[in-house]
Amino acid sequence: MTYKKKTVNEWLEEWLDVYVKPPVRTQNTYDCYRYVIVMMKKIQPGLFQMQLKDVDEITVQKLLNQSAEKYAKSTLKKMKIIFKSSYEIAIRNHKCKSNPALFVTIPNATEKEIRALTQEEEIRVIEAAKHDRLGHIAIFMLYTGLRTCEITNLKWSDYNFQKKEISIRKSKTKRGIRIVPVIQEANNIINSLPHYCEYIFTSTKKNPITKTVMRRLYNRLRKKTGIEIITNHVYRHSFATRMIENNADYKALSVILGHSDVEFTINTYTNAETKFLHEQVSLLENKSKRKVFTIKNYRSRA
Q1: What average pLDDT score do residues 93-114 get?
Q2: Taking the complete model, does pTM exceed 0.85, yes or no?
Q3: Residue 263's domain spans which residues?
Q4: Last residue of a domain, one of 74, 92, 110
Q5: Of 16, 87, 157, 215, which is most buried by a Cβ count within 10 Å?
Q6: What is the distance of C-alpha 158 from the center of its chain?
Q7: Domains: count for the chain
């Protein structure tokens, strides 16, 4: 059989366009894969000029090994998925005969740890956001724990004023399609916004917000507060942390966040609970000053 000549770069572009681009997959998946491919090109540019059929397992393994020096393990897993999935489809389309990523292993790499904002840091972020024209978006994310893609796709038709709920119709996963109750502060934000278009959150140009707009926002807040860890995902992580600190039920939190299962929620946010327990145990250190512990007391000491 004669295999059609394609370079790795040519095939990945075609694969992204035909098999990954919405509506086949979500926009978030498409953007993520494209970004990871850019990363791989920087690590091993020569690989992407090779003929698809000429790439062997050791070439892909070397790419992963080199990438482990710079990127987190979660990124390496995405690299393997991209090569394995794209080659599976390439084989079906008679563009090559073997999959070089089938048996590659993920090398040890640093797991990227996302730290939540402390309560004091969160207050600083909110105060800084109040003086930014788009700061209400950051505050809304801190109050709801929504993902970036969920915020950018939120429409007025998704908001129920009477029930104080928002319907997430586009998300990262199927479990992400859900109803999210929102606190009064978040409702106040929505109700204060003008209706420029069908989307709730808009830029200063009155257009629907994009990931770029949101990235620029958190970069501005980093400069204003000096808190370098601020990202859109840190808002979400901080929301979940505050919930755990207030004794939220893990199953309920899992549903609110749109997680695939409760175990993932527990594994991701167990540090918040550990800190909370340490605070309670510390009350035993001075018996003469021991008093009933409440969330209010906890916050007053933070």
Answers
A1: 86
A2: no
A3: 119-284
A4: 92
A5: 87
A6: 21
A7: 2
